[in-house]
TrEMBL record:
<feature type="domain" description="SusD-like N-terminal">
    <location>
        <begin position="96"/>
        <end position="225"/>
    </location>
</feature>
<dbReference type="InterPro" id="IPR011990">
    <property type="entry name" value="TPR-like_helical_dom_sf"/>
</dbReference>
<comment type="similarity">
    <text>Belongs to the SusD family.</text>
</comment>
<protein>
    <submittedName>
        <fullName>RagB/SusD family nutrient uptake outer membrane protein</fullName>
    </submittedName>
</protein>
<keyword id="KW-0998">Cell outer membrane</keyword>
<keyword id="KW-0472">Membrane</keyword>
<feature type="domain" description="RagB/SusD">
    <location>
        <begin position="346"/>
        <end position="479"/>
    </location>
</feature>
<dbReference type="Pfam" id="PF14322">
    <property type="entry name" value="SusD-like_3"/>
</dbReference>
<keyword id="KW-0732">Signal</keyword>
<feature type="signal peptide">
    <location>
        <begin position="1"/>
        <end position="24"/>
    </location>
</feature>
<dbReference type="Pfam" id="PF07980">
    <property type="entry name" value="SusD_RagB"/>
</dbReference>
<dbReference type="InterPro" id="IPR012944">
    <property type="entry name" value="SusD_RagB_dom"/>
</dbReference>
<dbReference type="InterPro" id="IPR033985">
    <property type="entry name" value="SusD-like_N"/>
</dbReference>
Amino acid sequence: MKLYNKLFASFFLVFSLVSCDSYLEQVSPDQPTTDQTWVSYEAAEKYMASTYSYMQANGWRYHEYFYLPQNFRADDIHPEYGTTAWSYLGRIVGFNNTASDGVPSVMWYYWYKGIKLSNDLIKNVPEMDVLTEEEKESMVAEARFLRAWYHFNLLKNFHEIVLVTKVAETPSELQLPGSSKEAVYQQLEEDLSYAAQHLPAQWEDAYWGRATANAANAYLGKILLFQGKWQEALTALDKVSGHELVAGTEYRGLFDGSMEMNSEVIFSGAFTAQQMDALGLYHQLGVAMAPGEINGGWHMASISDYYMNALESGDIRKAATVVEHGETFDGETILFDDPEFNMSIKYMESLESITTNRSTVDLIFMRYADVVLMQAEALYELGRETDALSKVNLIRERANLAPSSASGTILRDEIRTQRMIELVGEGHRFYDLVRWKIAAEQLNASGQQYAENFEEKHQYFPIPLEEVQRNPNLTPTPGF
């Protein structure tokens, strides 16, 4: 059993019930738990488990506040009426949202809460006499990985963020100004480099889901890639070891719960049937993605025609990702009221998960396919086209496709297309389009129904209005 995940789950449930007070409004947040927490290895481990809990929300809150907003603003997944019927989601996907909309506020709160708990660990663990130096280093490294993970998610989603690297001791330290992207990236690089040096390459199965040195190097490579530091990114990505692409016939197992603990997954958020039964922990991506005629689905999003047209004949990823009208899924022939509808089945384990509104498939945050494609991109940008092509062909071979012989900008576009096909629905595409500076172009090319509303400001969410009101040192997002 995933013992650490059970510990994580219990704390996820507790902390998910905490009211959404502003992170920046809390006073001396380490004080209330100091006496109870920093007294034993077991207590510190429980606090570590709670620090993971803000990576994802439970039930409908996950897909409405995290999954859909991070996935349905791109060219591969488009919103449907189950989304646009809700005004607060419709405004986001229609690119007419404001600074007072609630979805970005939840992101801001969750991720800063995760940062706060990370900083608690980083400050207090080194002072715990009951721990060995090795235990201290490992715990601090894990906390620094999580602090970087939360900051990176904020950085991708908001035009400006507050870099928080220590526990607030005075009220003034709760009202920090926004930080430059350069300063944030520098801190992320330092945190992830430390984590890569002091975390194990792998944990034993009982601790599946914890950050590893491989996860740290993969994310270090990603943040360097986002900055265009191609050689540094490649150096970090090349340090990821012990992971591989799963065999083609096992590909679907990555997303239906049948093969969650495998060599391709580098970092994921774990759910189990035991957690669902005992603690009520689950997500609802199955029912969210299905249309109403399929076991009462909520019809919130679909795979775009643009994505479907990019697929090549024989690509095994198609059957693992999307179901079309008249195809078989979970042993049944699927018929949609709209024969043109394309149903996403990533993280949908069965038709029963639609009926029960409950899914427990692990959510993948980082897998080796992403690393390979990032290596391909860095190699291409460094002018090493032959090496870049070999990386792309690893992905194509696993997908049961003939090798490519592309070069020049055609190779660049092939790398980008393979990223879309491979990672659809995993929270990457919109941020790729933004960093490539082609978001508006691709929204229009894919026929996204609100593409004409997209402006440069919509590359980011506005800083929540209540945060600006609470913190006079924060600058309101321009244009909102």
